[in-house]
């Protein structure tokens, strides 16, 4: 298993939840015991030009380009409706697949008197559903393809156990309980979690140890 680094902002264990034992035993995380500032000091002492380089923002590997513009190089635009929870049309968008739950900047939405956020997307019908910030919170994340890193962990034995989890890449861990019903596994958060998004990973922790996770199917 992988233990969280001392710098929670730069911790990478979120991305290790699918590792097998064969992959993990050949993986090295040599700077996990350092903060980002300490790593910069080491780089300065070695006179490395990256010592003063700004932290990357957004999708770092695509360079200085807006994420939506990058997606448009592979995904076609298709005009659809922006609606509220009652189905009332509030505007138009260029494709539901360009939007994510919790997003506030919504092109094509105008004339509203209060801030609105994406609370759901319907790709099949090409709809973007918007609501208030409170509507972006949910207390349950259903998952599929549950994978546990250690052979000593058994899914059935973890059901009902108090654990911690991340529903997206963030420094914070949220408390809750892994549960199972006839439809499969789900994580019930102790407090409502913002922007639980299908397609993202729900990563499980026991203390500071990443023990596995699955793919969010619904919230």
Can you describe what's shown?
The protein has helices spanning 21-24, 36-45, 67-71, 155-158; strands at 2-3, 80-83, 89-93, 117-122, 127-131, 137-148, 162-166, 174-181, 184-194, 201-206, 209-218. The chain is 11% helix and 34% strand. The chain is globular. The protein has a six-stranded antiparallel barrel. Strands 3-2-5-4 form a four-stranded mixed sheet, with no helix packed on it.
Number of helices: 4
Number of strand elements: 11
Strands ordered across the widest β-sheet:
6-9-8-7-10-11
- Give the C-alpha Rg: 20 Å
Biggest sheet character: 6 strands, antiparallel, barrel
Shape assignment: globular
Average of the residue pLDDT scores: 91
List the helices and strands and how they pair.
Elements: E1 2-3, H1 21-24, H2 36-45, H3 67-71, E2 80-83, E3 89-93, E4 117-122, E5 127-131, E6 137-148, H4 155-158, E7 162-166, E8 174-181, E9 184-194, E10 201-206, E11 209-218
Parallel strand pairs: 2-5
Antiparallel strand pairs: 1-11, 2-3, 4-5, 6-9, 6-11, 7-8, 7-10, 8-9, 10-11
């Amino acid at each position: 298993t992988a233990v969280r680094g001392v710098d929670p902002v730069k911790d990478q264990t979120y991305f290790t939840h699918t590792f097998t034992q064969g992959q993990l035993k050949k993986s090295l995380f040599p700077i996990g015991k350092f903060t980002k500032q300490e790593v910069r000091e080491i780089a300065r002492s070695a006179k490395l030009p990256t010592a003063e380089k700004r932290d990357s923002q957004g999708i770092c590997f695509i360079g200085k380009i807006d994420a939506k513009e990058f997606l448009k190089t592979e995904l076609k635009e298709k005009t659809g409706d922006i609606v509220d929870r009652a189905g009332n049309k509030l505007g138009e968008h260029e494709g539901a697949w360009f939007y994510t739950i919790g997003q506030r900047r919504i092109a094509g939405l105008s004339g509203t008197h209060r801030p609105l956020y994406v609370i759901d997307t319907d790709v099949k019908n090409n709809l973007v559903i918007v609501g208030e910030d409170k509507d972006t919170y949910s207390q349950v994340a259903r998952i599929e393809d549950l994978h546990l890193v250690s052979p000593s962990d058994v899914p059935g034995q973890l059901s009902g156990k108090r654990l911690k989890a991340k529903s997206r890449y963030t420094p914070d861990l949220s408390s809750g309980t892994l549960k199972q019903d006839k439809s499969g596994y789900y994580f019930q958060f102790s407090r409502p979690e913002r922007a639980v998004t299908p397609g993202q990973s729900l990563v499980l922790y026991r203390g500071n140890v990443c023990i596995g996770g699955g793919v969010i199917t619904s919230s």
